[in-house]
Design brief:
Length: 281
């Protein structure tokens, strides 16, 4: 390399002191090709860029540009977090402006969680306004039938068909400021005005009542009284329970949020593991 080239490179670095090379891309010398100290133009073997463990090349910038947030570190855990937010979408596709949880996405995920050996517990986060009755009941039945420990947290709201989903877990929490709306089943759109329509709605209502009373501590008389109470909801019937009120009625097991829920599911996993151990003969 000529002296002129070296001088130009040295001049460039002197004029740009604020530019520092990324340590993740600083090349390393190959120990098998040492540099001759007597020869200033000897650069040894071709250098290989050094890789820094755990640092992505362009993922962080891409996530900030596309999502507006930096990516979270990947942590291997035996607890899977399942979020059910917005409106539970069933057989009908909702408008694109609606925030939805599609039941055809949740059900296969629950099947995979049941089969995954590395997952030992499921944490269900609920902030839903309700939605399709049959889709919500399908998700609730899947959660209730899992052999692994499940814990649910109602954050913000767990309304309508979100009530049986919250009760389906092995243990349920509700945040102090979260609410749950209990009301009868209602239909939107064209309703055929025949006696059979009322009978069908009544049977669907019984399905919800039986599920909730079977997977919680609330009595059927209490739940139906909350469902058909007048005066609390404008132009409608039903009841809104906030935080501790849901616990007092027996719908939810305990008031708490993330910290309590994680501690509870860890304890349940330890008890579940002890039950799986087979004593030696």
């Amino acid at each position: 390399m000529s002296d002129r080239t070296n001088n130009e490179k040295q001049k460039f670095h002197d004029q740009s002191p604020e530019i520092e090379p990324d340590p993740a891309t600083i090349p390393e010398h190959d120990p098998e090709c040492p540099v001759d100290p007597d020869n200033p133009n000897d650069e040894g073997c071709p250098r290989v860029p050094r890789r820094v463990q755990g640092r992505s090349k362009g993922g962080s910038l891409e996530a900030i540009r596309e999502l507006g947030a930096s990516p979270l570190p990947e942590i291997k855990s035996n607890i899977h977090c399942l979020s059910i937010v917005g409106q539970i979408e069933g057989h009908l596709v909702l408008p694109p402006q609606n925030k939805t949880t599609k039941y055809e996405h949740v059900i296969p995920q629950l099947v995979a969680l049941e089969q995954a050996n590395e997952i030992e517990g499921v944490l269900i986060i609920l902030n839903t306004v309700g939605g399709d009755v049959e889709a919500g009941l399908a998700i609730a039945e899947m959660i209730a039938s899992m052999s692994k420990p499940t814990v649910s947290i109602v954050l913000g709201g767990g309304h309508s068909i979100g009530v049986p989903v919250a009760c389906a877990a092995s243990f349920s929490f509700i945040a102090e400021t979260a609410s749950m709306t209990i009301h009868p089943i209602r239909l939107n759109g064209l309703v055929i005005g025949v006696p059979q329509t009322y009978e069908y709605l009544d049977k669907m209502q019984d399905r919800v009542v039986r599920f909730v009373t079977r997977h919680s501590k609330v009595k059927e008389e209490t739940f139906r009284e909350l469902m058909f109470r007048t005066g609390e909801l404008a132009r409608d019937i039903g009841t809104v329970l906030i935080g501790k009120e849901a616990v007092d009625k027996g719908l939810i097991d305990e008031v708490g949020a993330l910290g309590q829920a994680v501690a509870k599911i860890k304890h349940m996993i330890e008890e579940w593991k002890k039950g799986k151990e087979v004593p030696l003969q």
